[in-house]
Amino acid sequence: MFTGIIETTGIVEKITTNGTNKTFRISSPLAQELKIDQSLCHDGVCLTVEAITNNSYQVTAIKETLLKTNLDQWQTGHIVNLERCLQMNGRLDGHFVQGHVDDTAVCTQVKTLDGSWEYTFTINPQFASLIIEKGSVCINGTSLTCFNVGPDHFTVAIIPYTFEHTNIHLVKENSKVNIEFDVIGKYFLRRQEVEQFKV
């Protein structure tokens, strides 16, 4: 479980294809603090640390992950948002994030304001009921608040700290990002569906 508050970023150093899987070697200041088998959130995707060498570590994404996320588009040099799992003795500053990406979204507009930025994304309309005005959404692992919500789109506002300390500044029009919808909303929607089955 994560919070969507990015700790730091990493850089993809090497990508190896093994059958339908891809293994990534990532350099990061966090590397020396990690442990093998530890869960780590990468652009919103929970991956398991497999090996650690000096200032880098290794993770593998399987076919299902590559199909559901933008990891298949990563190249060497890609900057990755990183977050370690939630400690239960700490404050929950973002929202509950599982690291289980639901889909990808496409950036359709980037608006530069006086001291902040607004990003608009389109989503698959089948997920429209999981986006609400002032609700939480996780984009590339970052907990953000939605507004200007429509049937297939929403906007988020980015403060300078987030812009500088995550990879959101690299997102341009037509960029594909990983998106995870609020888990509470997903359970509520599922409950409604089950109740309909009973009728």
TrEMBL record:
Pathway: Cofactor biosynthesis; riboflavin biosynthesis; riboflavin from 2-hydroxy-3-oxobutyl phosphate and 5-amino-6-(D-ribitylamino)uracil: step 2/2. It catalyses: 2 6,7-dimethyl-8-(1-D-ribityl)lumazine + H(+) = 5-amino-6-(D-ribitylamino)uracil + riboflavin. The keyword Transferase applies. Residues 1-95, 96-192 form the Lumazine-binding domain. It is an enzyme of class 2 (transferase). One of its GO terms (molecular function) is riboflavin synthase activity. The keyword Transferase applies. Gene3D superfamilies: 2.40.30.20. Lumazine-binding repeats lie at residues 1-95, 96-192. PROSITE patterns: LUMAZINE_BIND (PS51177). Transmembrane segments: none annotated. Its EC number is 2.5.1.9. Keywords: Repeat, Riboflavin biosynthesis, Transferase. PANTHER family: RIBOFLAVIN SYNTHASE, RIBOFLAVIN SYNTHASE ALPHA CHAIN. This is Riboflavin synthase. It comes from Terrimonas rubra. The lineage of its organism: Bacteria, Pseudomonadati, Bacteroidota, Chitinophagia, Chitinophagales.
